[in-house]
Sequence to fold (255 residues):
Amino acid sequence: MSCQGNIMLELTGKTAIITGASRGIGKAIALKFADLGANIAFLHFNDGEKAAETTAELEAKGIKVKCYDCNVADFEASKKVIDEIIAEFGEVHILVNNAGIVRDALMLSMKEADFDAVINVNLKGTFNMTKNIYQHFMKKRRGRIINIASIVGINGNAGQSNYASAKAGIIGMTKSVAKELGSRNVTVNAIAPGFIRTDMTDAMPEKAREAALASIPMKRAGEAEDIANTAAFLASDLASYITGEVIKVDGGMAI
Ligand code: NAI
Fold:
């Protein structure tokens, strides 16, 4: 727990839903939030072994944790899981829409199915989760929504027209919902990571990885914890007057 003036960077007594937290950035966010005292309900999709490891690591921190195998691209499944989480945890304070996939190809060779899959998980998944928690946050007159976008959604990237479209869409959704929910004391912000070391980037071809690293002014990949630190700030009372913002965490990659 750290302190700035009399406002603390802490999440004691809060409940956070984090999608895609069996590994990578979502897992780092879950661990950070748990360190700050939050109870965690996290989602993954068909990643049971890693989800069990993450659950054990979170439980060791002495907070309440439950994991749910749920495809965020499925509207009804998202609704069901949010209802279950509210029944289990009571009030939910924070939603982090982090689940995401890539299916990279130049437009010339991109299959329709690859476009649809990336839009459905990244963009529609963010809609599904946000739509289904919306009334809960409205009624409670407080809430935090943190969407994980990407600098690719700001600058575009050859070979990622599907992913860039989804992430740009998330930024538009973030700003729109921030305008809708501001008067209800609900903030909605996005984080735009650059190149972060996770399974997603480990799977990139060596050449593409080298090119990405060379384009970063800070000359190194980011860590999942760099994103988790920003998410913790946005979820905390320190950020209570920030909404509709997109924060790049990219070592200067998109300057
Ligand atoms: P990852 O591939 O390591 O983890 C993805 C997580 O999402 C896993 O927990 C997986 O189970 C979950 N997931 C995938 N499809 C799902 C679905 N249909 N329903 C529910 N959960 C699902 O990915 P990583 O790198 O941790 O990325 C997390 C987020 O950060 C993604 O939205 C990604 O687009 C974004 N991002 C990552 C960057 C990077 O450099 N790693 C850069 C910019 C953004």
Summary: The longest strand covers residues 186-193. The CA atoms of residues 70 and 81 lie 7 Å apart.
